[in-house]
Fold each of these.
Amino acid sequence: MVAADSPARCQLQGINQYNGEFSCPWCLIKGETYWIDERRHKWIFPTKKVHQSRDQENFTSHLRELRDLLHNGNNNVTNVFGIKAPSKLILLPKFDIVHGFVFDYMHTCLLGVVRTLTCAWLDSKNHNFPFYIGHQEVEINCRINLCKFPVECQRILREIKDIKYWKAHEWKIWMILAVPLLNGILSQPYLKHFSNFVTAITILCKDVITRADLETSDNLIKQFCVVLPDLYDSSYCSFNVHLVSHSVDCVKNWGPLWAYSLFQFENYNGVLTNSFSGTTEVGLQIAKKLIIAENVCFIKCFFFKFNGKKLLFINNGKAEILSEVT
Ligand SMILES: [Zn+2]
């Protein structure tokens, strides 16, 4: 299994970037240009059609086709169905170059769909749209401040004025709280639409997911994707929205979304970046720090004699006298 965000995944799989044609890692949707104005445009992925899936067989066949075209001097060809380079991962025994890549709900849902829609609701540029709630920011902040979070919750939700600094954990809290919190603020069709998305993703994050759960989630996601361009605009049919339509298949293959989300890996990135200074022998510095950290953990849970009289247990840096040694 390979878990990566979209920019990294495109490179690892050897396919077009997410803002190009045929860039979905799991299907052959082409996408199309959406003109924002006369000069600016973006690449969108229409939500109302089902597209042929990629699999190991058609992926390697398209890669071979690309190789043959380039071999025959067709230097203008840049890709075949989005495949533009041979991924080294193809050489990994038993690795499925299509389904070996997993859906990352941290980037796709929390930092993707949830953030995009929330920012659209609050952006004053959208003041003419029925989903605009930026003028209700004070009321939203009041409701956020009334929320009581469990003591286990390491990060609480900051106010809307800090929204551009919200971390993925805050977007996760917001995703869960937004529907009750915006009741009476965001108009019902939009609230219901977002609620479908939240329910679907929450189901896919359960510890135990039944076939009925998968079916419910699949239906909710289909509804969410199909209705999105009518409620908002086709410009909201982003790459992330399209990827959400593959989330249920990923859960069928690999289990709940939390099990391979990038939360855990990115948390560890913080540990790694704090394990070196400067640019000299970075790998060696990290290795040394990790070995020291592992040994400290071992010492923390080690019994030893103190003054030849007392048996101590060191736990998290605190010494506890367990018994007198005679
Ligand atoms: Zn796709």
Amino acid sequence: MRALVVDHSAAGRLALGTVPDPVPGPDEALVKIAAISLNYGELPKSDDAAEGTVPGWDAAGVVERAAANGRGPQPGDRVVTWGLNAGWAELRAVPVGELAVLPAAVTFADAAALPVAGLTALRALRTAGVRPGQRVAITGASGGVGRFAVQLAHLAGAEVYALVGSPARGAGLAALGADHVLTGAEGIDTPVDVVLDNVGGSLLAELLGHIAPDGKVISIGATSGEPTPIQPYQLVLNRLTLVGIQAGGDTGADLGHLVRLLAEGRLQPSVDRVDSWEQAGKTALALLDREIRGKAVLTVT
Ligand SMILES: NC(=O)c1ccc[n+]([C@@H]2O[C@H](COP(=O)([O-])OP(=O)(O)OC[C@H]3O[C@@H](n4cnc5c(N)ncnc54)[C@H](OP(=O)(O)O)[C@@H]3O)[C@@H](O)[C@H]2O)c1
């Protein structure tokens, strides 16, 4: 089958290649993939990425063969899938607990945008225990995780502070539910209860001074690549909790929840760009260069 493979000589270190078809385990459905999405964290950014491997966390398509144990969706069912690798291929073997069935109204492109970014935002908010009326600051709000986090925090009844790199990067966030779109922590007028942090570095360090007593910081990523000079007494004096989260594993029910929100029009997929997977390298570079606002989706043609 064809698949996107790590190729250090190609633009964006990604190229179409040919790899063996996956062999599903007894609890895995075989899915013919129609659309995939790119996430910052999975893009091959350095020589460390293993040449010839097939990355890919997010993929949506049609079940070609049901799991041998009879569980899960049946041939012809449209599904969205999550996995730790090998999603950027014509076929994917997926444990039946790591997918959700799609209603006809949800396109493959929109569904492919959901898994990692949507699950991460959902699980970060759940970890923080966000309640109606709480103030939630979200860094990297212009990105894939950020745009879902803004929407889900708004749906949870929070007052949302979206932090972005520039006003242009914040376009569309107010319509998604951001009450304040800011380019720096100094714009936070009242201390927030929760920070969902995608960026780390000096921004996170500064935000620690804008959190109410007993507040929570959920560390999702550190896209800035900067060191984060934390003063421990900022945590101590205000009894702050700092916790890291990971999105994956046992995702079926949460994926189903996100698909329902999408189908009901309560969640926007924030797909900023759809290309053919033949353009994967160029699209990956655009994501790394902060040219994408939200999600980049590739169709498997
Ligand atoms: N813990 C987990 O399970 C998990 C899951 C998914 C993602 N992550 C991590 O969470 C972070 C966000 O992921 P994502 O998929 O939303 O990424 P993304 O779509 O690329 O968004 C990242 C955002 O970070 C901001 N940013 C700040 N400094 C940056 C820099 N130096 N280079 C690039 N972007 C910078 C950008 O916003 P502005 O341009 O507006 O500043 C960008 O929109 C990443 O670090 C990723 O690795 C973790």
